């Protein structure tokens, strides 16, 4: 379980940074709505990073906390600050899908271990990513 949680922590931190990058660099006719949307996402992800790291600590392990360790654990790509607004949305969709798949895999391990607290955390994270995918998809449908 700790390995899976560390990967989710690294991906969540990477997505936090990506969302903040896109918040800063988005341009175009949908600037205001996307700027606000991305800000909401990185604020939510900031809280999630803390929750996931604290769960790792509650399991008796050290939480990774450096760019080097996150880079070796993460499975999503870094942001492209030169992307168009549409490319940013598509990249975020893909990143949320990757994290969603990793959460589902971690959830299976937590269920096997009957780790109810981790199950609850992972279900909450899964719900967040599903809702975010819906919202991002709605912006791409324009």
TrEMBL record:
Pfam families: Ferritin (PF00210). One of its GO terms (molecular function) is ferric iron binding. It comes from the Bacteria. Residues 5-141 form the Ferritin/DPS domain. Gene3D superfamilies: 1.20.1260.10. Belongs to the Dps family. This is DNA starvation/stationary phase protection protein. It comes from Candidatus Berkiella cookevillensis.
